[in-house]
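Structure request: FtsK/SpoIIIE domain-containing protein, Streptomyces cheonanensis.
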Amino acid sequence: MSELLTVLGVGGPLAVMGGTVAVAREKCPSVYWSAVGLPLSTVRLLGSYGSVMDACGLTVAPSRLRALAVRAATRREVRPVPPRRGLLWPTSTGLRLRLRLAAGQEVADVAASAERLRHAWGVHAVHVSEIRPGTVELRLVGFDVLRDVRMPRHTQGGYLRVPVALREDATAFVRDYRAIPHQLTLGATLSGKSMYLRHLVAGLAGQDVALVGIDCKRGVELAPFASRLSALATDPVEAAELLSVMVRLMDRRYDLIRARQNIPVGTPDQAITSDLWGLPEEERPVPVVVFVDEVAELFLAATRKDEERRDEMVTQLIRLAQLGRAAGIYLEVCGQRFGAELGKGATMLRAQLSGRVCHRVNDEASAKMALGDIAPEAVIAACSVPADRPGTAVAGDTSGGWSRIRTPYLSLADAADRCVKTAHLVPELRELAPFKPVNVSTAVEAGGLPA
Ligand SMILES: Nc1ncnc2c1ncn2[C@@H]1O[C@H](COP(=O)(O)OP(=O)(O)OP(=O)(O)O)[C@@H](O)[C@H]1O
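Returned structure:
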């Protein structure tokens, strides 16, 4: 064939065109998808829907009525029935398609065939989710969206909801503090934990929320954001003092909530509250997000005195994790490992941190510390995060769901700049005033931030 094309004089141009398409596919997958992949996959899907469903075992026998009607009207062979297909919705990264399941089918049947469907329709991945009983949505993703992360335009962010990364199904992964109050983020060195924290700080900086940092790596990770922090502790001694203050703050908020519960006769039901969010807006204290970078540093103890301080700190962290949610105090804990070997209280604290994000890890044991109580497949996925893709992680929560995510790139300078611009939003919290980092902007400038 190629000889014939060469004789006709079109072999050369065709080869050049083929090469250009291959390069576009490699270098600009989103452009390739819009120009070539989308029309091809649409044609494939529309042309082969019935036969692909049949080959994947996703068809059911037709009802007797349908069989009779087909025989009477066409005298054709009565074929098995695939799920009823809705409209195809093209997106910048793929296609969306809703299916009405046939009687006797369940979501798991379609999910089990996702790998076969992706091969049949020539897309990078097929993700299946339930929309309502009997209806599933297929998200066909045309290319590897985690290679060059672009966040979608509509991310469903909001108050205490930070779109922090992209999921592999091209939807935004939102860190929602009210749904999952406390989170543990693990990862080996250079795996992208700081980038993750950076996005959270930058995302929360513009909101009415107090940000508190505990960074026992002498503040190297969190000091650049100091202008927006209400408090920063950079060594274990300061951290111990700050945590005691946080626990006292929490106790006072509980008192406030309890005072509100001395319910006078005639109080409407909706005014009775058991947490901060039920208080009237003018009385409601501002929520506090506590970032703990490199949690293992808090557990280290060389002397007996250190040990006492460590035990006290761990107890306070556990109290904050157990009771903080109702008082609007949320924990964001980061570290390389978080196992029982850290010492007394580690396992108990970990159990309270229900949100889990695991970046690349050095061994399976570390992945199990983050995801072991979520799903064995999530552990395997975390162990296979490639080293040349920093920021890639497996995110799960203790309800059992998990997904692969990757943060977009955000330079430290841009995140710090956002903090400087939103410094006027630092809320007044009398208790935290002694811990307010003072020489913040000067420290940032003097620190010479990397790009
Ligand atoms: N999503 C991302 N996209 C591109 N580059 C990234 C991403 N996340 C992290 N990186 C890069 O990877 C490198 C390591 O990232 P980061 O400092 O966040 O890792 P870390 O896990 O905090 O490491 P350490 O524990 O040593 O502080 C940095 O150079 C950072 O710019």
